[in-house]
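can u pls check wat happens w/ flavin-adenine dinucleotide
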Amino acid sequence: MDVASSLAVVQAVKGALVVLAALGLTAYKWSTDTVVTDDAVYDYIVVGAGTAGSIVANRLTENPDVHVLLVESGGDPPFETEVPGMFPFLTKSAIDWNYVSEDDGYSAQYHRNGYLDLPSGKVYGGSSSIHHFYYVRGHANDYKAWVDAAADDSWSWENLIPYFKKSECLVDQDILNSPTGQYHGTNGYTVITRELREISLKYLEAFQEVGNKVVDDINTGYTLGFTRPMVFIGNGIRQSSAESFLLPIKHRLNLHLTKETTVDKILFDNKKNAMGVQVSRNGKTFNIYARKEVIVSAGAFNSPKLLMLSGVGPKAHLESMGIEIVADLPVGESMEDHLAVVLAHKLEKTDETPKPENPSDFPIPTFIGLDALDTDQGYPDYLTLNLICRNNPTNLLLLCATVFGLHNDVCEQLAKAGQGREILVTVLNVARPISRGKVLLRSKDPKDPPRIYTGFLSNSTDLENNAAYIEKFIKVTDSSYFRNIGGETLHFDLPNCKGLEKNTRDYWKCYVLNMMDTTFHYSSTCRMGSVLDGELKVLGVNKLRVVDASSMPNTVSANINAAVMVLAEKAADLIKKESDQYNVGHCVT
Ligand SMILES: Cc1cc2nc3c(=O)[nH]c(=O)nc-3n(C[C@H](O)[C@H](O)[C@H](O)COP(=O)(O)OP(=O)(O)OC[C@H]3O[C@@H](n4cnc5c(N)ncnc54)[C@H](O)[C@@H]3O)c2cc1C
Ligand SMILES: *[C@@H]1O[C@H](CO)[C@@H](O)[C@H](O)[C@H]1NC(C)=O
């Protein structure tokens, strides 16, 4: 199969899913929609039922006297979100905001489009309903920077451990009975399991032989090494925040969920108190009010967009859009994301027909690694997500062309190499990149998508580092396993890198520029420390917080969903504590 026919198949499947959606196969689970009415009043309004918003809404409504409205642009998660094996069909669909990056004329040039698809979920569960399942918490060192930004030690790794445990229900006796079991929860809403297919073991051994540690549990805050990862899959079902935090509480009368409803503006009174929100649903607009607070959890693109539309953002930019300023803050600036570089290794010959995977498992056998150029530093420089495709050109094409929109030529070369071979596909990320992107408004019309600049590789240090990390990673080709079967790094025929000698630093830098994509970890667009205070309150205004990936002061050396969850758990506690204080001596209405 070539790229064109592979993409055609994907389109056909997506078309079929659109038809199936009409059957509303999951509607029975989600019979929770509240039709909003004008001038309704709640204690809290939470904007966005994604990873963070679902958690906040759940925790706040533990108190039956607290009334919360959770507003979501999307709707019920269709059944393909539940089945792990369906992951390639979730983006570029009706449950994706379908944003793309602005063409910066530099990165993403050797891509199908010259820009990047930047998927994010528009559905209950948000991006956790379309993500790729990896449960990785990040390193204690990452959270040190959160402590600095918040000027508050309660954001340290040690102090966040209870919140990680609070969300988690780890189903893995080996880990629970081991010394690292103490870092894991068994009573939380989100079921976490481990990827345990044995095909990874020979690779783990190979990485061990060339000097890496192999561990069972990478989520202890201080561990570097390679492992078969924990995943957001439980009972064969995706553990999105919607599945885990909203479904079990849909009977709560004090929680109203309203779907297919979009917040277009935060309403401020003349003392800069966030009084409520203006929403649109089916072409009608309503105002809804919050007695206590508005909590924005619309994700790393839409939270800054909403703030800016409401007058909270960089003055010059808002003025250029004709928006009146409420607070002049660096909203949308300094976006972080993990640049992904796709590497491939060609391994043993095999003419076995690909073994069909159970669609309830993680879709492709996988292992991950956290590594540093100098491991003595104790924290990672880069992280790798590794996928094993055994005589499976179809999967290779899906990964290459659909998950990462790499150039057709490259995808065809990859699929060809995978014919009758085992291929190790590696997504290599710089853990804490220096380059920054930004989110701007396209216009003051809420229906317009934001302008998103990834900023990828805009600082040349990232490019240099990325090349160095590749050089370290591919040392695995010196291991006995790789040598015995003639395993080798694939060098694609990249037109822009012609004439550069393979395996030189300049070659790898060129390779990075041509084989890059995003890992979908957009964050820090309303960061704690510059837009928010240490309690995630928006500076310069009152009764408004941002709680989601945008609030992160900096990214973490991991896939970021677990970090977004911990941030939301902690935020919910902060809000509840403050609300208890307010209520002392007051009549609670
Ligand atoms: C394809 C993909 C793969 C990923 N893979 C992984 C992985 O393997 N592991 C991992 O840890 N992380 C992964 N991530 C990242 C992770 O899923 C996200 O970082 C995380 O879900 C972000 O959570 P959030 O709460 O900030 O935003 P979201 O979960 O995106 O939630 C925002 C919600 O707000 C809603 N919304 C937005 N604007 C409005 C509005 N104006 N009015 C009403 N509602 C609104 C949206 O529809 C959405 O439901 C992946 C992400 C993607 C997209
Ligand atoms: C790149 O990052 C380094 C390290 O933070 C910094 O010193 C340098 O000024 C940056 N370069 C540019 C062009 O921004």
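The longest strand covers residues 284-296.
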